[in-house]
Design a protein that fits this description.
The chain has two domains: about 90 residues, Transcription Regulator spoIIAA; about 180 residues, Vaccinia Virus protein VP39 (Rossmann fold, 3-Layer(aba) Sandwich), CATH 3.40.50.150. The chain is of the alpha/beta class. The radius of gyration is 20 Å and the shape is globular.
């Protein structure tokens, strides 16, 4: 049953990916409740995350089941089992656990996207280092970036920053609470031979504190993809994207230059943007326009273009 479904979807998505010259794509996402995986192809290596649930199996039986699933995935994709990486992804309260370390073994790979390359890690973190659902959004930022001063908040591994730099940004400032991800973002910039110490700043710190001190009319383009909820001990206050998005966006709009733009996204399924509360000339829902082919009908994030 699982194999039949996998063969059908893999053939379909792999064909589209080849036509669009896309090397990294998702091809299975909870298609069958009995097999609650999210499975992605990263240029010839497979990342399969099983969401933890009450499956009723003893540990030994579950391991055997996972191994059988791994063999099916390897057979369908014609990729060796040694390149199929299986993880169990526990649902967390909020988002703080999203980037927690998963294992002690580290296996990095370099994968292409567009004419750029990104360092991913398929083994020791829950997420790989490259969110495939923002593939189109990254291209939009690149197209807008020429000559702009760009701020990338909650930057993770800096893929938006790399795209902005490639697009000819005048400067790029990347901010994240995690030292690991700030270093990773800088490595991505360096690997693409784009890093310029005078133009590219990487800041480890609490975004919510940093934006309190942003000078007025400083940035032409801001990318902000916050967690749904965060209560990290390193932050002075907790954050709830539904409750706090207006306050956050007002501060970012103040930091925007005249006609400055904000790309704002989040993964809260029930998110509702309070448009009327924003002092913005343009608020455009670009969720559909930024949803890639491999996420159609299965993407629960929202994305907005907000212009001062």
């Amino acid at each position: 049953m699982f194999e039949n479904r996998l063969r059908k979807v893999y053939k379909h998505f792999a064909k589209i990916a080849r036509k669009q010259n896309i090397a990294c794509f998702r091809f299975y996402d909870h298609d069958m409740p009995e097999f609650p995986f999210v499975i992605e192809n990263y240029d010839g290596a497979i990342h399969a995350a099983e969401y933890k649930r009450r499956h009723g199996m003893e540990d030994e039986a579950h391991e055997a089941w996972l191994d059988a699933c791994k063999q099916v995935i390897a057979s369908v994709t014609e990729i060796g089992p040694e390149l199929v990486f299986m993880k169990i992804r526990q649902r967390k309260e909020g988002k703080e656990g999203q980037y927690q370390k998963f294992d002690t073994v580290k296996q990095e790979r370099i994968v292409p996207e567009s004419d750029l390359s990104f360092i991913i890690n398929l083994t020791d973190y829950l997420d790989t280092g490259l969110f495939l659902d923002h593939r189109i959004t990254r291209g939009m930022v690149r197209a807008e970036a020429a000559g702009k001063r760009v701020l990338n908040l909650f930057c993770y591994t800096g893929s938006f920053s790399v795209y902005a730099a490639k697009g000819g940004a005048r400067s790029v400032t990347s901010v994240d609470l995690s030292k690991t991800y700030i270093n990773w973002a800088k490595r991505n910039m360096q690997f693409n031979k784009l890093y310029d110490a005078e133009k590219h700043e990487f800041v480890q710190g609490d975004v919510l504190q940093l934006i309190e001190d942003l000078p007025k009319d400083t940035f032409d383009l801001i990318v902000c993809d916050p967690p749904t909820f965060s209560n990290s001990k390193r932050m002075e206050t907790n954050f709830d994207v539904q409750r706090d998005h207006v306050t956050l966006l007002k501060k970012l709009l103040r930091a925007c230059t005249e006609d400055g733009k904000i790309y704002f996204s989040n993964n809260y399924r029930g998110f509702s943007l309070d448009r009327d509360a924003l002092p913005a000339a343009v608020v455009k829902d670009i969720t559909a326009a930024t949803t890639p082919f491999d996420f159609q009908g299965k993407l629960f994030r929202s994305c907005f273009l907000i212009q001062k």
